[in-house]
Amino acid sequence: MTMILPTPAEPLMIGTRGSPLALAQAYETRARLMAAFDLPEGAFEIVVIKTTGDDRSMIDADRPLKEIGNKGLFTKEIEEAMLDGRIDIAVHSMKDMPVAQPDGLVLDCYLPREDVRDAFVSLKDGGLAALPEGAVVGTSSLRRKAQLLNRRPDLKIVEFRGNVQTRLKKLGDGVADATFLAMAGLNRLNMIDVPRVAIEVEEMLPAVAQGAIGIERRVDDERAATMLAAIHHTPTGQRLAAERAFLAALDGSCETPIGGLAELQGDTLRLRGEILRIDGSQSLSDEVSGPISEGPALGQALAKTLLNRAGGRFF
What we know:
The chain has about 325 residues and is an alpha/beta fold.
């Protein structure tokens, strides 16, 4: 049966959050689909959906994300719109995605991954090592907080949320001496003027799936499945299969300080993982390697190793 492609009269509805980064990711998805199927821009409609995580009363508050409710914080309303048929596909930052999708939805398309590293951002000269004793660092990430305190227990960590512009203003106002952003987001927004230093993964292991864009669809939408298959980046999918299996086996969420990174070296997948106590007082890390096809099993095995070392009360 011939697939009926979207048209300006009946466009493919692309759901996304409304932040500049989320929109940039939606535009990239649209551009790749346009090129793959030789379609005009009008054959797609970008639908902005406000999520719980976009509620400014919560984002600007000093409450930690875990008090608001992390799982689905940036995805729930978008997924509901897809199940209701208001949108056809949804574009997500994969590090925000829970490891399980709601019944009726599937996530099996990934765009080529960007820089996975964290960016140290400060208006003051020098990098992380140059921060004086007792310096204030702003972050809402439990992983970054735990990693920082593990390496620099002298630092003071304060809650720090908002878009890039909001965070830079807070730095200028003296709320903190430094903060962290994802290199991927800065690159996608072409923010070359933001003062930052990339932190190598050997120093700070990134969040699982950091730098990756995922595109979700309804299970029974054959047109969306065919179209998304044309832009799927297999190596990114292979890496995320291992990382998300690692996260799932740890029962990980935004409430747990976890870092994970899979890399491909020829036919071999190398997976590094780290778990930390929330206060940074202890960090456990390890790595595994094996055939790329065994990525999910490697992720589960690495999680089991770290859990066995951690004991029952680690988290």
